[in-house]
Specification:
It is a single chain. By secondary structure, the protein is of the alpha/beta class. It has one domain: HUPs (Rossmann fold, 3-Layer(aba) Sandwich), CATH 3.40.50. It is built from 5 helices and 5 strands. A 3-stranded parallel β-sheet has the order 1-2-3, sandwiched between helices. A two-stranded parallel sheet has the order 4-5. α2 links the parallel β2 and β3. The N and C termini lie far apart (55 Å). The relative contact order is 0.19. One of its GO terms (biological process) is coenzyme A biosynthetic process. Keywords: ATP-binding, Coenzyme A biosynthesis, Cytoplasm, Magnesium, Nucleotide-binding, Nucleotidyltransferase, Transferase. Pathway: Cofactor biosynthesis; coenzyme A biosynthesis; CoA from (R)-pantothenate: step 4/5. Belongs to the bacterial CoaD family.
């Protein structure tokens, strides 16, 4: 029996939005399964509790059997991937700034583990302006 090809999509997903979902569905065209790994980003303050983010994601993916959700509390993404035998990392880019950052990260990850590949997908034009930080700002304004 052939092993399912899985790709790991790690992020803080605070919150997960349409741009993330679009990348997940596009990745499922190439991979049997997407493993969403919810992380805490030490550079971001006021993050929603990780369990709440997982619940929100479960609602959005609606029990899709080709999507699994895991939590990474404090490991480097590349170490988490190796521990769970995940050989591919999914990253999305919206613009040249994202691309520069993701290439740098992919190269660093390649140094740390040459057996794990980063797959970069370019966001669809309609999703290119969406960011979790922008959504958080809107939510804060609406709650005032």
């Amino acid at each position: 029996m052939l092993e399912k090809q899985k790709i790991m999509f790690a992020g803080s997903f605070d919150p997960m939005h349409q741009g993330h979902l679009a990348l997940i569905h596009r990745a499922l065209k190439f991979f049997d399964q997407v493993v969403i790994v919810v992380t805490n980003n030490p550079e971001k303050t006021d993050q929603t509790d990780v369990d709440i983010r997982v619940q929100q994601i479960q609602t959005l993916i609606q029990n899709n059997p080709n999507i699994e959700i895991m939590i990474n509390q404090n490991q480097l993404t590349i170490d988490f991937a190796q521990m769970h035998n995940l050989k591919f990392l999914l990253r999305g880019v919206r613009n040249i700034e994202d691309f520069s950052f993701e290439v740098e990260m992919a190269q660093a990850n390649k140094i740390l583990n040459p057996n794990i590949e980063t797959i970069i997908l370019i966001s669809d034009a309609e999703d290119a302006k969406i960011s979790s930080r922008f959504i958080q700002q809107i939510d804060k304004i609406r709650k005032k």
